[in-house]
Amino acid sequence: MTLKYLKQSFIILLALFILFSYFPTNKNVSVYADSDFDYYVGAGIYDITGPPAEVVMMGYANPSMTTKGIHFRLKSRAFIMKEKETENSVVFVSADLGQIFHSVTQGVVQKLKDNGYGDLYSYNNVLLSATHNHSGPGGYAHDGLYNVSTFGFHEDNYNVIVNGIYESIVRAHQNLEPGYIEINEGVVDGTSSNRSEVAYNNNPIEERNQYEDNVDKTMTLLNFRNTDGELLGIINWFAVHGVSMGQDNQYISGENKGYSSYLYEKEMQSNNGDDKTFVAAFAQANLGDVTPNIFGDGVGYGDNDFESTKKSGEIQYEAAKSLSETAHVRISGPIVTKHEFKDFSNLEIDGKYTDGEAKRTYPSALGYSFAAGTEDGRPDLGMFEEGMTQPEYKIDGYDNIITYARDLLVIVPQIGEMSGSLYPELWEQHYPKPILFAPSQVKPDPWTPQIIPLQMVQIGQLSILAVPSEITTMAGRRLIDIVQENMADQFSNNHIVIAGLANSYSSYVTTPEEYETQQYEGASTLFGKWTLSGYLQEFDKLSKAIINNENIEPGPIPKDLTDEQVYLLPGIVFDAPPIFRDFGDIKDNVNTSYNVGDNVKVSFWSGHPNNNFRTESTYLEVQQLINGEWEVIADDGDWETKFLWNRESTLFGTSSSTVEWEIPSNTESGTYRIVHYGAYQTITGNVYEYTGKSSEFSIN
Predict the structure, then answer these.
(1) Are residues 449 and 506 in contact, defined by beta-carbon separation less than 8 angstroms?
(2) 158, 255, 256, 646: least CB-packed within 10 angstroms?
(3) Strand-pair partners of 105
(4) What average pLDDT does the chain have?
(5) What is the pLDDT of residues 463-511, one digit of tens each?
(6) 658 with 603: CB under 8 angstroms?
(7) DSSP for 516-575?
């Protein structure tokens, strides 16, 4: 071999050595050499469904609305964006939850820190947002008011949520790769209307005339692509409540936004169990007064909640698909995050953000009309209605409603402490709100947060405003406007979105004019008439800090209330099948044959489903016999299935589980069966798995 060939061989071997020595096997993104990209991007998804039986759902505050099964599973969808040359990054999570409470953010940030991420991900750059789904299990707040209807804190559900969000972030981190982000905007019609027009119409006429609609119909969408142009995932923000499923529903459901995600991910052939797969997040925006029940009085499309949810989800999915396919503007520029904790129980506000005079916010309080609910869900409390303002209302036999409420609630001392009649000074401060509850006055710790997080994220020419509340349409518009005034000169064609119900939860935010009418949303604006003004002041400060590269004081971190939680309901004592039967035995079998469009139904003697939440798994499978092997074609994460649990006898510990499958139109003819997976608990506390199988049936 000549010297020339020896040199060439050495060079080739050296090149191979360098290539394999430095190729990133651990997703350490700093070693990528590809220069034709804007950011490192990654997406991840994980199950956060939780207990499917006997836990009160979060959203309607209705103690009778307990989980009894699963329509389709809840997910946490995470995205990470990181700059090429620095460690600047941001995590965005959209979770199929009613709210993101501070307890959840605290738990996720701590879990990231404890598991090797150190200060890489912190309060500063982790943004957790809820879809405001009203059909998921509750009891995961550390704030007492939000656990009243759930009979306390449900630790197992909390752990599923925190761990699921954490795992989705871990997957997104592990999936980081060079790529780019596209942005697009459009209008979505047909699935949103204003449920609080009385309040909205109290805003100045000249302001209302600037807009075509009394709800914000803008959908802003991001495409995440790698350098090969592969679509890794999408996020969009669109304002609409997660109340297509009413308060009589007892199935866990991802609601309209969850169904939109399901449709998009199914279209892209996602496998949610894989570490890397396509992820579609339909995130929440300024939804405070926006309902999907566009025909009023809680009525949406179709004849039932499922049809209403389906139609709203389809409309959002189709809009997002169109925006994704036509997106061509690439985001470019630095990633900057600013975050602060602010005590809103006593925030001084400059007159430029109010009516010209210096104002302040006050300790949290809820008005009479909070108890009236909205047209999407009103409790059966005839004495309350929307629009109740000072002076006090009266009912027969009592001086006023506050006295009546206090007399009902004194049996629970902490709740009795909230009675509005005890705090005349708050009445004056919150005028014209007549105070029903004052959760800020509960001792030793307030029952709603007084210190709340405010966060702004800038990714190139995109601003994300993370608000820990349900902010109304016009309030959101004002917030966007004040930030846009600052950002417009700095970033050409800057886009601004509101990430609602983010990082914590402090109920509603209305405009001062809307507050005056004391509809449900105004009565639920915790810190008084000038709450929005406080938001305007603080986000004005955050946006200027981004432009001027200024530091923001982090503020006081809310107290950790982990060790102060209680749960009042008993857990599972034991499970037992009927005499001469076993777990998994068939109670009611399938028919021998069905046609496309029919509903297949089978029941099994079962254990309590809370023995094993089957996270990242399933309680059921629809299986087809193909070439002598049973192949799974659907499970409890699919729209066309339902899993329903029923307590047959509390005394004897017997229960049954029913599986339904609505046969889709594209189902092949063939042989099928339904399989149920469960677990039972013995009197000694041991838990064992079991499996039940239906008889085979044919589809013609």
Answers:
(1) yes
(2) 646
(3) none
(4) 92
(5) 999 999 999 999 999 999 999 999 988 887 999 999 999 999 999 999 9
(6) yes
(7) HHT-HHHHTBTT-TTHHHHHHHHHHHHHHHHHHT------PPPP--GGG--B-S------
Q: Are strands 641-649 and 670-681 parallel, antiparallel or unpaired?
A: unpaired
Distance CA 641, CA 634 (A): 8
Q: Which two tokens stand for residue 1?
A: 């071999």
Distance of CA 231 to the CA centre of its chain: 23
Euclidean distance between CA atoms 606 and 680, whole angstroms: 7
Distance of alpha carbon 663 from alpha carbon 600, whole angstroms: 7
Number of neighbours of residue 591 by Cβ within 10 angstroms? 12
Locus of tokens 């469960």: 678
**Cα angle for residues 178, 180, 185 (degrees, 5° grid):** 160
Q: Where would I find the H helices in 144-224?
A: 155-174, 197-200, 205-208
Rounded Cα gap, residues 356 and 290, in angstroms? 30
pLDDT tens, position by position, 235-288:
999 999 999 999 999 999 999 999 999 999 999 999 988 999 999 999 999 999
Q: What gap in Å lies between CA 104 and CA 653, rounded to an integer?
A: 33
Residue 406 corresponds to which tokens in the numbers above? 């206090």
Closest CA to 519 of 117, 299, 131, 201: 201
3-state secondary structure of 127: strand
Q: What's the gap between Cα 596 and its chain centre?
A: 34
Q: How far apart are CA 5 and CA 687, in angstroms?
A: 68
| Contact present, 620 and 635 (Cβ < 8 Å) | yes
How far is residue 632's CA from residue 611's CA, in Å, rounded to a whole number?
24
Amino acid in position 517: T
Distance CA 574, CA 651 (A): 10
Q: What is the pLDDT of residues 41-92, one digit of tens each?
A: 999 999 999 999 999 999 999 999 999 999 999 999 999 999 998 999 999 9
Cα of 320 vs its chain's centroid, Å? 18
Give which of 323, 336, 242, 245 is closest to 290, Cα–Cα: 242
Residue listed under structure tokens 């999907």: 292
